[in-house]
Write a structure and sequence with these properties.
Layout: E1 4-7, E2 12-17, E3 23-24, E4 27-28, E5 35-38, E6 41-47, E7 50-55, H1 60-70, E8 73-76, E9 81-87, H2 91-96, E10 111-116, E11 119-126, E12 129-135, H3 139-149
Antiparallel strand pairs: 1-9, 2-7, 2-8, 3-4, 5-6, 6-7, 9-12, 10-11, 11-12
Length: 155
């Protein structure tokens, strides 16, 4: 198989509204349609004053406390989306079956909200593959679609 899909369960996910500032948790704020990473934390640009902070499981309380001092609002949305890491030489080809974003032209660090086979997702382009955040209620559909779209890449 030339595509691997791995669930990353229980990731810390915090929506942050920020009026002013240049960083969160010591991580520089990303430009539109990008994300930045440092110290085990990803900060995703979601809108003009909205960011999504991703971290490993179990860091909600620690990060919420730190972020509440830096931002206007912090909301724990960890249960809202499932996180899937898609890697392998054909990962972009599989996503191209249902995504209108030109993934060949999207450099690592790109982060977009888009549709993937009628499902709203957040798509992060990484050095090695992609991270996909899909709403819980669409998770089963997404996994079924992913299995179907990748069937031609299974040897």
């Amino acid at each position: 198989m030339t595509v691997d899909a791995v669930d990353e369960p229980f990731r810390t996910q915090l929506t942050v509204r920020l009026r002013d500032g240049h960083s969160l948790l010591g991580v520089a704020l990303p430009e539109p349609c990008t994300y930045t990473s440092s110290n085990g934390v990803d900060v995703l640009w979601m809108g003009p004053d909205e960011y999504l902070v991703l971290a490993e499981p179990g860091r909600q309380a620690e990060l919420e406390a730190a972020l509440s001092r830096e931002s206007a609002a912090v909301v724990d949305v960890s249960a809202q989306r499932n996180v899937v890491r898609l890697t392998g030489p054909d990962a972009a080809e599989v996503l191209a079956h249902g995504c209108s974003i030109d993934l060949e032209a999207a450099p690592p660090g790109t982060c977009v909200q888009t549709l993937l086979a009628r499902t709203g997702i957040v798509l992060m382009v990484r050095e090695e593959g992609f991270t996909i955040l899909v709403r819980q209620s669409f998770s089963d559909y997404f996994k079924a679609w992913l299995a179907d779209a990748s069937s031609e890449y299974v040897s």
